[in-house]
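User: I'm putting together notes for a lab meeting next week and I want to include a structural view of one of the chains we've been expressing. I don't have a solved structure, so I'd like a prediction I can at least talk through. The sequence is below, exactly as it appears in our construct file.
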Amino acid sequence: MLEKIEDRDFHMIYIASCGEGINAYNLVQSTLIQFPDNNIIVVKVPHIRTERHVDELIEKVIDTESLVVHTIVNSDLRQYITRKGIEVGLVTIDLMGPVISKIETFLEKKPLEQPGLYRQIHQVNLTQVSAIEFALAQDDGVNPDNLPKAEVILVGLSRAGKTPLSMYMSVMGWKVANVPFVPGIPMPDILDRIDRRRIIALDINTDQLFAHRKMRQESLGVSEVTAYALKNDIKKEINTARKYFISKGYSMVEVSNKPIETSAEEIIEIITRRFRNKAHKVD
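Assistant: Thanks for the context. Below is the predicted structure for the 283-residue chain, given as structure tokens.
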């Protein structure tokens, strides 16, 4: 709670906000730079969402050299804090009201007046960025020790589409890792200690995988067809991979001739169904 300070030779500016008051605080501080040696202390008072909260604030700052800058999204509460300020002779500055009013007129649409929306959306963006960074750091089997932190682990043959699918899902906020399956090379032991329900194997047909690998070789300027792109060898790889995935109990998702969006939706539906409201949490 705020403590009433008396007998002081400085001024106070209180930032009253229904959220955290960070934006208003930064604006006030930027403005105060224009007034050097101002001897002003700025204090944030977050989560002002009821008339009682306003009354408590007014009681603490009344009869002091203070002013209240507020960013309240609720119109009734904005009017209340303005009215109370007038009653007690306290200067209040409404930063939110005029902006909301102008935009409301411009869009011909009523605002939601819901506190904390910016923080919620900003948190979603942070989650998205974190997921993208995670997918990049765990691409193609790198950093296997971090696999338990993944919400989804994609396994599959080279050029089966693991990386683009991982990146697409990460943009949607999912922490995805991918691990290549190479016949003859052991998979990371740590996979056996992870809930297999989070491991999705990408299944692809011979023609599709051949086309992907051939395109890859051409992009690298390789003219000679190697075993990497021979259809018979590819068919054997696919059969070996399928047997391995089945032996481990991994769910297989067919990705042949499918848009990334469709494969991603199918995988997300599987994970969501299995973990319900825990789909975005690593057990």
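A couple of points you could mention at the meeting. The chain has two domains: 11-115, 120-278. DSSP finds nine helices and eight strands in the chain.

User: Perfect, that's what I needed.
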